[in-house]
Amino acid sequence: MNDKQFTEICNKLDKIFAILAVQSIENKDDKIYTIKRLGFSGDEINPIVGVKNCRQMEGWKRK
After folding, report:
1. How far, in Å, CA of 61 to CA of 63, rounded?
2. In angstroms, rounded to a whole number, what is the distance separating the alpha carbons of residues 3 and 49?
3. What is the residue-level pLDDT of the chain in tens, covering all 63 positions?
4. Is the dihedral of CA 53, 28, 49, 37 positive or negative?
5. Which residue in 14, 41, 44, 62 has the most C-beta neighbors within 10 A?
6. What pLDDT score was predicted for residue 1?
7. C-alpha–C-alpha distance, residues 53 and 4, integer Å
């Protein structure tokens, strides 16, 4: 395994741990806001939260 592969695996593990960490957040808007701040795209957030379009939710629009 080279450095590039190791970095790629670490990045994917970081995303998995981030998803597990936000599962305890009950409010969908808070969950979307948190996941977005962690660097996830809208297409990645939709199935995690269980919505069709998270970009229309209040959590996406927060700054």
Report:
1. 7
2. 33
3. 899 999 999 999 999 999 999 999 999 999 999 999 999 999 999 999 999 999 999 999 887
4. positive
5. 44
6. 81
7. 33
Question: What is the structure's pLDDT at 63?
Answer: 75
Residue type for 54, please? C
First to last CA, the chain: 39
The tokens describing 24, both together, are: 């305890």
Q: Is 8 within 8 Å of 30 (Cβ atoms)?
A: no
Element (H, E) at 33: helix 28-37
Q: Torsion over CA of 53, 48, 29 and 41, rounded to 10 degrees? A: -60
